[in-house]
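Quick one - inputs below.
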Amino acid sequence: MSTAVENIPGVEVLDESLESQMTLSMGPQHPSTHGVLRLDLRLDGELVIKAIPDIGYLHTGMEKLFEYKKYQQGIVITDRMDYLNPLGNNLAYVMAAEKLLDLEIPERAQVIRVLMCELQRIASHMVWLGTHALDIGAMSVFFYCFRQREKILNLIEAASGGRMTPSYFRIGGLMMDLPAGFERRCNQFMADFPEAMNTFETLVTGNTIWQSRTMGIGVISAEDAIDWGLTGPCLRGSGVDLDLRRDNPYTGYETYDFEIPVEQDCDVWARFRVRMRECYESYKIVRQALDRLRPGPIKADAPKVVLPDRDDMRKHMDSLIHHFLIVAEGFNIPPGEVYMPIEASKGELGVYMKSNGGPKPDRVHFRGPSFVNLSALPVMSEGEMVADVVAIIGSLDIVLGEIDR
Amino acid sequence: MTEQLREFVDKLKGGNPNWIMEVVEGHGEVTVVTPRESIAEACAFLKNEQGFDMLADLCGADRGPEEDPRFEVNYHLFSTKHHKRLRLKVLLSEDDPHVETVTTLWRTADWHERETYDMFGVIFDGHPDLRRILLPSDFDGHALRKDYPLRGYEPYSMN
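Output:
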């Protein structure tokens, strides 16, 4: 895998006599590559002439594994893809299966899904901001960000039992209802969060060093951004007004009142501003979702697909039989294929799911936003300084677990 | 939703009726099966005339070694203007898994096509740099083919 730049087709070998030129292999253990990403950088002094990302170090064959697991077992695998946004992955996967099954999801489950996904989006953006600032050299921001993220992870843990691997959404609804006192704890977090955002704005946004490290760096035009398939904050930072929560609405997002932040500068700064403003919008959505929480069922009325409640199993014979069949044999999904895109924290997360009628999928493919966004790294970083490549990687907000799958 | 998608299919038919082999509808999505010779032309028509300016995803699928045609390549087209999605599908036989590249239309196809080549062995003619992307360059076989065992043939060593 570690091919020298000279051996890669399409890369012209530059004049070797120039002593200023060198090839730098950055990563895969480099801390600011956010995981195991390796970059082949062709440098002229400190100027990047050519950047070639090399991925696959974390490849674990998840798409192959899906084909050997029942539909409900696949949810657990999705947690491990984009591990900063596991609920988003859960949602895309279960919604693809629900689309194939034509399931109706009850109102309360939809609201909880939106609530949890937006909390997760804030948590994901907190990690992004912390590590992005750490890369550029502002260390303390990291601690403030992770403090907020920890509060959200505690909420997710309270609901699902897992901090990083919740597997909270199930095909047809949720694993279980929110625990008692969740709303109070969530409100507590909500009360503190605006103050924390003020801290970040003071620490980072007004900081002249931050501004000079991000403004005018890693520019990609709107046209190029669409051509390279950028989505999410990276696309909106290039001035394209596109958000699947509004444009291809799912889980009832069309009924929430929120704005889509768009910035026109096309650089690292613009992507930074988009994500910061998104935190406020997610905050607004969480507020509305909390107001909408009404008692009601959290599972679809489909006894052959959704696991029955424990209580029902003790009282009803048919519930016990359904439970046994779902766990032992799985449930069949009629033949067909769907593509289910959602707006994850990093961009369009699409799940292509194909069923051949059995209890296991024929093919599951994840279109990871990180994978596609990273492919545009060379366009953004060529012509920039080495130190700026670090800033650009940070602004892309990549997660290697999702890129390599 | 499907009504508007049908209009795009009609327009595609108007562009050249030979581009369409079969139209499949289901779950609010429309799939157009396209002969492999004309996939790039059909994509160019949809991109330039119908506003499908983004290639959201490109992925392969294996129907199994006993099937002919065995491989599928799915193109998920998306428009940033009218926000509609259309799936184009190309069917390829095992003996001749060649299809024209669409990297000339969307540069995002670069990595997607490399991944499909890596996992299924589908060869995209005209791709500027078709080599493995996720698996090591000396890996034997194509891991997502149905006849490739889950745990591989032997423990893989990085030597």
